[in-house]
Design goal:
Strand content: 25-35%
Low-confidence stretches: none
Number of strands: 16
Number of domains: 2
Number of helices: 5
CATH topology of the largest domain: Gyrase A, domain 2
CATH class of the largest domain: Alpha Beta
Largest sheet: 6 strands, antiparallel, barrel
Strand order of the largest sheet: 11-14-13-12-15-16
Mean pLDDT: 95
Order of helices and strands: EEHEEEHEEHEEEHHEEEEEE
Oligomer: single chain
Length: about 300
């Protein structure tokens, strides 16, 4: 790819849930796939909120603003139903959950713009505190560093050239780390989007909804699908079905996230049957637009 991601972009497709109170970390630890009990102030967590069947209802990037206040960044379209469902489990826990999207706007920083704010190399999910703002380092896109900037509403975002929202969305896809949206809610266990390989699942923590299914998928060899990076010459969208040209009846995968590629067509993260990865793939039907698989930008972890 010869397109350079460089600049800052407001991210209205992302919302923020606030969990505030002395039991906030403990509560999230018991609901999500990652360890929030041991979450420090200099790191973030990628995590999924699963159903009892282990299917991802939402994905979050969570971090602490203090020991009693945590923020969860997620799909804004899913925020209201997920907030309602999470609130059902609060019971007597000492915390309050609320929609804090208007209080904490989210920006994306990429390339040299990010380097000017936070020089040097950073690992994914590292968290920096900069004058009250939080900078969450993400997986790169084609080697380009990216981060989320989350700060109180009256905090000025850092200076830098404007990055189009479409280019940011393309960078999200190129990173290989999918965000759960309404089109794919409850479609996948976390490993079907490679979450165990990008630090989205902790297999050593205690119970959470769907944990038995997620663990069984990992350790009993029952996982039949994986996340793949792909390109299509035509427009595709999250939720579109993927077919093997040799089987017109049953889809072998689903588009999890897609974005227009600067060079034309669409790039996508697809969840695909492992056995179909070598097949001739098409979107929408067995005669639909051809889908070309691309190398993943990170290794899949075998030893967890």
């Amino acid at each position: 790819m010869n397109t350079t991601l460089d600049g800052i972009s407001p991210l209205p497709h992302l919302g923020v849930i606030r969990a505030e109170g002395e039991d906030a970390a403990k509560f999230l630890h018991g609901q999500l796939t990652q360890d929030f009990a041991l979450l420090g102030l200099s790191e973030a967590r990628l995590a999924a909120f699963c159903s009892a069947k282990g299917r991802m209802q939402a994905s979050f990037i969570g971090f602490k603003r203090s020991h009693t206040e945590l923020l969860l960044v997620c799909s804004r379209e899913l925020l209201a139903p997920v907030l309602k469902r999470l609130s059902m489990f609060v019971l007597r826990a000492k915390l309050k959950l609320s929609d804090a999207s208007d209080d904490f706007p989210v920006y994306g920083l990429a390339g040299a713009c990010l380097g000017a704010v936070a020089p040097g190399a950073h690992r994914p999910w590292q968290l920096d505190t900069l004058d009250g703002a939080r900078l969450i380092h993400l997986y790169p896109a084609d080697g380009t560093p990216r981060a989320l900037w989350v700060a109180p509403r009256d905090t000025a975002p850092p200076p830098g050239p404007s990055l189009s929202h479409d280019d940011w969305l393309w960078g999200e896809v190129r990173s290989g780390v999918a965000t759960v949206s309404p089109a794919i809610a409850e479609a996948f266990v976390p490993q079907m989007l490679n979450y165990e390989s990008v630090d989205g699942v902790n297999f050593k923590k205690g119970c959470y909804p769907g944990q038995e299914v997620v663990a069984r998928s990992q350790f009993r060899g029952t996982l039949k699908r994986r996340g793949y990076l792909a390109h299509c010459s035509e427009a595709i969208a999250a939720g579109d079905e993927v077919f093997d040209a040799a089987d017109a009846q049953q889809p072998c995968g689903i588009v999890a996230q897609a974005a227009a590629a600067p060079g034309g067509g669409h790039d996508a993260i697809v969840s695909l049957q492992i056995a179909a990865a070598a097949a001739q793939l098409h979107v929408g039907s067995a005669q639909g637009p051809k889908l070309e698989l691309l190398p993943l930008p990170y290794p899949l972890r075998e030893d967890i």
